[in-house]
Amino acid sequence: MITVRAPATSANLGSGFDVFGVALDRPADIVSVERAAETTIEVTGAGSQYIPEDPKKNTVGAVVEELNAPAHIKIDKGIRPASGLGSSAASAAAVAVALNQLYDRGLTRKELVPIAGEGEAVVSGEPHVDNVAPSILGGFTIASDDNVTTVQASIPLVACLPEIAVSTRDARRVVPSEASLEDVVHTVGRAATLATGMCRNSPELVGEGMHDTVVTPARAELITGYDEVREAAFDAGATGVTVSGAGPGILAACHSRDRRTIASAMVDAFADAGVDSRAYQTCIGRGAEILSRS
Length: 294
Description:
Elements: E1 2-11, E2 20-35, E3 40-45, H1 59-67, E4 71-77, H2 87-102, H3 109-124, H4 132-137, E5 140-144, E6 147-151, E7 156-162, H5 168-173, H6 181-200, H7 203-209, H8 215-220, H9 226-235, E8 240-243, E9 250-253, H10 259-272, E10 277-283, E11 289-293
Parallel strand pairs: 3-4
Antiparallel strand pairs: 1-2, 1-11, 2-4, 2-5, 5-6, 7-9, 7-10, 8-9
Helix pairs in contact: 1-2, 1-3, 2-3, 6-7, 9-10
């Protein structure tokens, strides 16, 4: 048996739609795999009642097929599904890392990224690696075509998760199919600023680079209380605020000294909007880790 911890992630970061992603120090999924004649899946933990255990309908089933590695898989969800924190990607990432070890496939972490990405097609309709890349590799990742670049940045973050659900498919449907030249230029500039901020470990540059005028406003409409929560986070000291992935999670960049105040302010703002939520005081963390092998 091999047990792997795979972290939650936040994709897009505002200006990096379908390209940028970060691993979060917390929360995480814990996944155990054992060799078996055919694949079975058992899911417990946060939102497990909503996650199919049929391998053809679960993200990890596609990973098993790609690696030709049948197994009995136990998934303990620390990341609620439909959260915008890469719940399905974490499971796929953990299984990819675990099965690669269990069956001695000898693949590198980067080679596992597109394999885990195939699992994302189950929930979004097409493969994406913006969440699985940081969940496997850790740090800040830039995924472009078949290339993934990783920066081991250190930026304090707050991820606030409201008790509402936004499906990845619905969040992709509202993304505009066109953008003005002005918006494109603005987005490129902000994305470059964010990437520079990650390389310099600068919360100010990362926060400035999160601003986006194309995708984020459309997705924010799906999140009750978004504008109020965003404003509260800035008032409490956040350097940048955006929708985490497809939402409804909201991500704030900040300095360590302000993290607790920002978390409290975001939860209070959601409460004022009539929405329960919880906040994770986190940071950019490591990728999937093998916890045990027996």
